[in-house]
Amino acid sequence: MGSCRGFFKDECNTPQLLFVCRLQQLRLVTCGCSFTSGRLIKYALLFCTFFSLFCSCLTSALAPAPAPAPAIPPLPVPLADLPGSWNATLIDNSWYYYETKEVDAMQNILAHWSNTATNSFSYNLPGWTSQPDLSYPCFDQADWLGVACYTSEDNYNGTLYFTLSVGYIELSSRELQGGLPPAIGNLSNLVGLILVGNPNLGGPIPEELGSSAQLSLLDLHDNAFNGSIPSTLGYLQELGRLDFSSNELTGSIPPQLGNMSRLEALELHNNRLTGTIPISSTNSYNLGFDNLTSLMTLTLQENLLSGGLPNLRGAYNLLVSNFSSNNLSGNVSIHSIFNSTSPLGILDLSFNFFTGAFPDVNIFSNSLQHLDLGNNLFDPSTFSQPWLSNFTHLKTLGLANISPQLLANMLHNGFIELGFLLEGLTSLQTLRLDQNNITRYLDLRNINISGPLNLINLTGNNMGPYFSSFLLYSNISNLVSSGLSIMLEDNPCCDNIWKNGMSGLTDAEIYYFCHSTPPPPKSKDPNTIVIEIIVPVTTVTFLIALVAFFLYWSARKEKYSLLLQIQEEFAKQDVQPTLYAYNDIKIATQDFHPDMKIGQGSFGVVYKGILQDGSEIAVKHILTNSQQSIDEFLNEVVLITNVKHKNLVKLKGCCLMVGGGANKRFLVYEFVDNNNLAETIFENKGGHNVDWPMRKNICLGIARGLTYLHEDAQPRIIHRDIKAPNILLDKHFNAKIADFGLARLFPDTETHISTFHIAGTMGYVAPEYASRGQLSEKVDVFSFGVLVLEIVSGRKNIEPNLNEDQAYLLEWVWKLYEEAKLLEIVDPKLNTHNHEEDIIHVINIGLLCVQSTASKRPSMARIVAMLQGDEMEMEVIIKENPL
């Protein structure tokens, strides 16, 4: 056998038509033949060869010419002409420049966190990689979790070109391990750095952060950073918020922080900082807190700081000032420390060693809501009574352990006449008078139990020894049912109850004051038991009476048991929800009459109610088969009640009806005047003309409310069901988010989208939540983006009656985005004159929120900044329609 493979090598190297010759026992294959016949070889080879060449030429002639490769545009600016080390990448036929030091910086950070994952690195930080084509998060195909890039237009010698840079890093609760490397300082255009809630992320805060001159947000709270605060941070002239709270920082506060003229929030609480609070008059740099003229929030509590308070007179917008739990001392001259025109709402000086005159905080009587001066050493003789009655907005007053003499001067004739003490404090919710060695009477006769006051803490005093010897109030049962909690634990009067059982009060009333587990019932006398057994039941009347008594006693026992349980849960909290009686709710809603029904959602039916005092409420009847215990339910109610923001609907309290086979639960909210957003925008209910400034303000209000839920609420809350019907509008058309936190009241099996077994509403649900059940704050961001587009367009996100290309709002908007016709989605009822640019800006923010990849969506805090125009908007680069 012979072989001729590769005989026509040149022809075989081209993709031509294969010709197979079969002749007798001869098999010839172009570019590979074998033969067994002798005589016909020569003719067969010649025939096949020429036929193959003929086919090859014919195929080449008929084949279309290959398309020319697209021309690569020239670099607008040579890389060598730019200062430093630069490179360029081609995106959509345009060149984008980037600094190689940024690539090195991100790879350096990656190396520091490479062992960070609990399961796998890709689980904690998906997209973070050293793969060359994806090694920089701003590359076209890169997708680094929590990293956003900015595109900017630059000019070099009259030539315009585009640059890419890392602008934002946000990695919260990602279980990061290790530290923050100095290379972070090479991200020179970094605007925001948020690394929150990573308890194994520690080490020193790098001084090189001071090189990131564009930083406006630096948030490293709830980590394990140690060492001192770098003085180089004083170079960050654009910084608006610095939060290093809840770390392990030591050393003194550098005076250079006073150089940050735009700083609005400085939060350094819960560390181990020492030394004095810097002011410019005490250091050679002429820097200190007295130069922080833009400051609005200052929290330094729970450190080891010493010396006196700083001069904050230049901070004329100061809202929060908390210095509690330090070693601060000296006199407190309010006029010398604070600007009298600032709207100070929180002032906490408790648990320090301040001496001298009792602080005269009268200048803030119109703004203070939380004031705590307890556990200090103020001179009792300097107290002046009249100032207290002027604080009409005060919600919390802390006067614990301020000395018996000072309290005696504050009270009336040495008596604790709380009605007199609280006169004028019409908004007060919490009063702390614990640990003051109070020994005199407790006079509650003039106290307003129908007001907002819900807690009076008198624990750890010397009151008693018997209730009858000091308690002055005409109707104890009214106090018990009022919702006002009066705590008298660790007083002789409460101790004496358990020792001698002499109080004259019922178990519920004892518990109400002393907040302890009631004693076990006394054992019956044996003779009594015998008598009860042998007494014959001789008449039907007695039997009926006995049954009736038993039913009454059981109901009463269940009622008091529930009351004790509720009071115990509420007593653990500083903010106490109101417990409404079922009959009051029933009367307020006209026995839940259909005419009083104002809405129905996934969590229940909502009724309007009018209480006997004329105030309006909204009552939500929770519809659930949940087996959740009352304990758990009340705990969640307390948590939701503590969540307060002007863009959230206020939960006032709850109502429980248990027993007799009934298990009803109601939530009582403030009543909001102007319907919900769906009724106002889609249905034009009320006939209001909601113009563009009002609609943008609604978007901003929703964004602020969600920012509070995601970042400031404790615990943080993911709403899961942001939609137009859950946005209420008050009389000024300010947005208020409803139903937040309600997902916490239901088990996972209780859902209102059974298709996905998740909480949410069709059309608003983020893809990663709908398909994989992955829940994060970015789920709310996606829903917010859909809602923004609905507000702009004035229509629901799904409208089956419209043309097919417009039925689904997101698909329609993406189509118009690609065609540069975004204004076509705007509600025809809107007058867009002079607003076109602003409307396009808001639509782009909405599109940014509905990116299919969660990590590409901004946080709600960034959305607020973009809506306000305070932060450079990240360009929306759509590679392909994500839908």
TrEMBL record:
The keyword Repeat applies. It holds the Pfam family PK_Tyr_Ser-Thr. CDD domains: STKc_IRAK. Keywords: ATP-binding, Kinase, Leucine-rich repeat, Membrane, Nucleotide-binding, Repeat, Serine/threonine-protein kinase, Transferase, Transmembrane, Transmembrane helix. The keyword Magnesium does not apply. Coiled coil: none annotated. Residues 592-877 form the Protein kinase domain. The chain crosses the membrane at residues 43-63, 529-553. InterPro entries: Kinase-like_dom_sf, Leu-rich_rpt, LRR_dom_sf, LRR_Rcpt-Like_S/T_Kinase, Prot_kinase_dom, Protein_kinase_ATP_BS, Ser-Thr/Tyr_kinase_cat_dom, Ser/Thr_kinase_AS. ATP binds at K620. It is found in: Membrane. PANTHER family: LEUCINE-RICH REPEAT-CONTAINING PROTEIN DDB_G0281931-RELATED (PTHR48006), OS08G0203700 PROTEIN (PTHR48006:SF34). This is Protein kinase domain-containing protein. The lineage of its organism: Eukaryota, Viridiplantae, Streptophyta, Embryophyta, Bryophyta.
